[in-house]
Amino acid sequence: MSLAPSSRRGWRWKQPSVIPGFGLTLGFAIVYLCLIVLIPLAGVGWRSAALGWEEFWRIGTDARVLAALRTSFWTAALAALVNAVFGVIVAWVLVRYEFPGRRIVDAVVDLPFALPTAVAGIALTALYAPTGWIGQFFAPLGIRIAYTPIGIVIALIFIGLPFVVRTVQPVLEDFDREVEEAAATLGANRLQTIVSIILPALFPAILTGFALAFGRAVGEYGSVIFIAGNIPYVSEIAPLLIVMRLEEFNYPAATAIGAIMLILAFIVLFAVNLIQTWSRGRYGHGA
Amino acid sequence: MDVTVKNVRKEFGDFPALHDVSLDIRSGELIALLGPSGSGKTTLLRLIAGLDFPTEGAIYFGEDDASLKSVQERNIGFVFQHYALFRHMTVLDNVGFGLKVRKGRNRPAKPDIEKRARDLLEFVQLRGLEKRYPNQLSGGQRQRVALARALAIEPKVLLLDEPFGALDAQVRKELRRWLREVHESTGHTTVFVTHDQEEALELADRVVVMSQGRIEQVGKPDEVYDRPNSPTVFSFIGESSKLPVSINRGQVYFADRPLGLDAQGSADGEAELFFRPHDIEIVEDAGVAIVGIVAASRRTAGTRQVELEVGGAKERVEIEIPVDHPATAQTRIAFRPKRWSVFPSR
C-alpha cells in the first residue's frame, strides 16, 4: 500500500470529503434533472430550431407575440415587486407578534399553493368584475380591474404571495434580537433599525422570494386567463398565446414562443442569482 | 456618572427575576455583577441599560430618573456576549453607526464620523481592519469591534454582558487585562456581568455577588473573598469546605469534640463551619482539631489536595497539604482551619 502523500495538484473532479456518496448522489441529481427539467426544455429548443432562424425571428418579432411577452413580463415583475413588499410585512407580523389566530393566518398563506389556479382566477374575477364585491367600488371611479392588465397583476400577486412569505419568515425568525438591541443602545430608533439593520439582513431572502414569485408568475396560466379578458395587444399573456397556437396545431410557433419566454426568464433569474451571490459574499451568509 | 438602583423588582410573567435590589455605583467605578446562571445579574444589567423595564423601583443616572427614559435616550454603551455586530456593514461602519443615526445638529459630519471610528479602531488595536466584515474577524477581534462601537457614542455608562464568555481561555485573559487598561484610560463608569469569579476578582473595583435574584454581598474583591457574609457567597467564591458543627458557649464543636475555634459570636446551637482548603494548619495534637482519614488525594500544581473522611466517615472535607507531606490513603491527619467562618444552620 502506498502511503505517499496525495499531492496531486491542479483541478480535480472530486474534492476529498468525509461525506460519502458523492458519486451516487451527483449521478442521481444529474439523471433526475435531465428527466424532469433538461430533456423537456431541450425539446422546446429542438422543436423551435426546426423552424429555421428566419421563421423563428418572424414569429418572435410578431407584434402580437411581442405585446403578449411584454404583458407577461411586466405584470409578473410588478406582481413580484408588490409581493416582495407585502410578503415581508406578512412575514413580519407572523414572526414578531403573538395574536389570536396567528396559526390560522400562517396556514392561510399557503392556500394559493394548494388551490387550483382556475378556481382562484374565477373567484378573483367575480370579486373584481365591475359588478363584483370589490369591483363595484372602483367602477364608478372609472377604474376597471378585471379584464385589464391590473386584473392580471392581482391574480399574479395572489399566486406569488407564499414565496416571499415563506422565504423571508425563517430568516426573520433566526434574526438575532441582540443585534436590534445593539442598534437601540447606539441610539437608533425603530425606523432606522429596520431600514439600516433588519432589511439589509433580509435582503438575500427577499430577493430569493422575488425570484421565485416572478418565475412562477411569468408562467402562470390558469388563474390569469379568467380575469385577464385576453384582449390581444392589451391583456393577452404569452402562455395563452402558446395554448392558442397549440389548439391550431401550430406546434412550431408554440414552441418558439415558449423558447423565447424561457430565454428571457433565464436571463432575469440569472441576474437575480448574481445579485444574490454578490450580497451573500458580502454579508457572510454561508461562506 | 453615578448609577443608583433603588428597590428594583423585576418579574417576567409570574417569575420573579429580581427581588428588591438596591445598589450604588460610583462614578468611574469598575463593577462586576457576579453570580451563577439564573441569579438575575444579566436582568439587572439590562434594566440599567433600559433594554428591560423594572416592575417596581427606579434607576437613577446621577440625579435623573433614568427609568423614564428609553434605551436610546440613556446614552449607554452595551457590549453583548455574542458581539451582536452588524454583519452587512464593514468594521468601520459598525463603529460609526451610533454617530450616523444621530439627528440634526448632534450628528457629526461624515469625515468626522469616519475619523472618530478610525481613532477608536486604533484604540482597540484593530488598525488596518477597517474594510473587513465581521465574519472575517476572530472572536476576540469581534469583541474589540463591539467595544469600539459602544465607546463611539461616548456613553455615560459602559455595560458589558459576559463580554468574554464566548472566547477561549487565552484570548479571554488577554482581553481581561486590556479591558482594565481601557477602563483606566477612559474613566467610564463600567458594569460587567460574569459568572467567572476569577474574572470578577481580578478585574473589578467592587464585586456584587448575586444569587437567586438578590444581592448577597457587595464589596472589594478582598472583602468578598476574605470575609464572605453568607454561606452562599462563601461557597460560590473560591474553594471552600464546610462541616456541620455545633456551638456551645462561643466554642465550635465537631462530633462532640472542641476544635479550639472561636464561634465568632454565633449563637449556641447547630451551625456550619466554612473554611478554605488552603487556609489550614496540620497539627500533631489530635485533641483540639478535626481528625480525618485520607480518602483520596490528587496533585495540583504546587500542592496536594486531599479529601478527608471525618466524623466517622459521615462527612468529607477537602484540604490542601504540602506536596512533601507523607500522607497516603488511610493515613490519619489532624488539622485546624487558620481562618474560618461560622454561619447558623438554616
From TrEMBL, chain A:
TM regions (residue ranges): 21-46, 73-95, 141-165, 194-215, 221-242, 254-275
Chief place where the protein resides: membrane
GO annotations of cellular component type: plasma membrane
Listed InterPro entries: CysT_permease (IPR011865), MetI-like (IPR000515), MetI-like_sf (IPR035906), Sulph_transpt2 (IPR005667)
GO molecular function, one term: ABC-type sulfate transporter activity
Membrane topology category: Multi-pass membrane protein
Keyword Transmembrane annotated: yes
Keywords: Membrane, Sulfate transport, Transmembrane, Transmembrane helix, Transport
Pfam families on file: BPD_transp_1
ABC transmembrane type-1 domain: residues covered: 69-272
Compartments in which it is found: Cell membrane
Record function comment: Part of the ABC transporter complex CysAWTP (TC 3.A.1.6.1) involved in sulfate/thiosulfate import. Probably responsible for the translocation of the substrate across the membrane. Part of the ABC transporter complex (TC 3.A.1.6.1) involved in sulfate/thiosulfate import.
Subunit structure, as described in the record: The complex is composed of two ATP-binding proteins (CysA), two transmembrane proteins (CysT and CysW) and a solute-binding protein (CysP).
Family, as annotated: Belongs to the binding-protein-dependent transport system permease family. CysTW subfamily.
Record-given protein name: Sulfate transport system permease protein CysT
Organism this protein belongs to: Pelagibacterium lacus
Gene: cysT
From TrEMBL, chain B:
Pfam families cross-referenced by the UniProt entry: ABC_tran, TOBE_3
E.C. numbers: 3.6.3.25
A biological process from GO: quaternary ammonium group transport
Source organism (scientific name): Pelagibacterium lacus
Keywords for this protein: ATP-binding, Cell membrane, Hydrolase, Membrane, Nucleotide-binding, Sulfate transport, Translocase, Transport
Enzyme class: hydrolase
The name this protein goes by in its record: Sulfate ABC transporter ATP-binding protein
Any one GO molecular function term: ATP hydrolysis activity
Transmembrane segments: none
Domain ABC transporter: 3-237
NCBIfam families assigned: 3a0106s01
SMART domains: AAA
GO CC, alphabetical: ATP-binding cassette (ABC) transporter complex
Family stated for the protein in its record: Belongs to the ABC transporter superfamily.
Lineage of source species: Bacteria, Pseudomonadati, Pseudomonadota, Alphaproteobacteria, Hyphomicrobiales
InterPro entries: AAA+_ATPase (IPR003593), ABC_SmlMolc_Importer (IPR050093), ABC_transporter-like_ATP-bd (IPR003439), ABC_transporter-like_CS (IPR017871), P-loop_NTPase (IPR027417), Sulph_transpt1 (IPR005666), TOBE-like (IPR024765)
